[in-house]
Amino acid sequence: MDFTVSTLALEAFLLVVARSAGFCATAPLLSHKSINSRLKVLIAACISISVYSSMDIALPEYETVLGFSFLILKELAVGLSLGFISSITMTLLVMAGEFIDREIGFTMATTFDSNIGASVTITAELYDKLVYVVILITNLHFYIITALAQSFLLIPVGRVSVNMTGIATHAIRFMGQYFSIGFRIAMPIFLGATIINVILGVLTKSSPQMNMFSIGIQIKVLGGLLIMTIAILFVPNIANFLMERMQEMLRTVIGDI
């Protein structure tokens, strides 16, 4: 049996590996700190083998070793950019958690999230872990891998031309939607806290002798936890919504690269 591999095929495969490795280094789930580095390398290698064996990857022209190194860097940059764009959507959960904890009085209760390297509120951490679990259970993470595979069709290996104007336009548009999406996720708790504040305000006017400040804090915490328990039923819808937004962003940005 002949197991020889041509140099051109190996070079084309290395370009695929560079993009896949960059994507796995920044994409949600695949880049999580809890995943061992060796496992990340194995995932990138498996994705690269699958993509290379199922697609006709054409090696672009180059003349020197420096030219090939530049192609490797370009593919690595494309993978890092696509993974980073995908991970941006998951940060919406942190913002939604901040909104929720501000309403129910859990702002001071924070925990360190090693994945993003910053302190986040406990509700943000809860929503983040729940959405990740739902994504894994429902196999939505395959959409992330599919987006990487489709990038090789839309952006051929070594043929990257960046349209900075288009990318900047989409980035500004997404930042405008960023806060509204995070607020929509936290909307049930926000409405519940608003209703509780109105009720407490009416009680304060009708019974001035009652200390509504101390009572209101406990009522808002209990009411917020109750509403949050009910809102957990909508976590699968949130996960599906985030994945749709992630795919939309990737398709839009890939079209402008």
Which range best describes the helical content: under 10%, 10-25%, 25-40%, 40-55%, 55-70% or over 70%?
over 70%
Poorly predicted runs: none
* Major pleated sheet: 2 strands, antiparallel
User: For the CA atoms, what is the radius of gyration?
Assistant: 24 Å
The helix count comes to 10
Mean pLDDT equals 76
Q: How does the overall form come out from the CA principal axes?
A: elongated
Element-by-element helix/strand order: HHHHEEHHHHHH
**Structural class designation:** mainly alpha
| Order of the strands making up the biggest sheet | 1-2
Strand content: under 5%
Number of strands: 2
Spatial gap, N to C terminus: 42 Å
Quick structural summary:
By secondary structure, the chain is mainly alpha-helical. It is about 75% helix and about 5% strand.
Q: Can you offer a commentary on this structure?
A:
The protein is mainly alpha-helical. The protein has ten helices and two strands. The chain has helices spanning about 5-25, 35-55, 65-90, 90-105, 120-135, 140-155, 165-185, 185-205, 210-230, 235-255, and strands spanning about 110-115, 120.
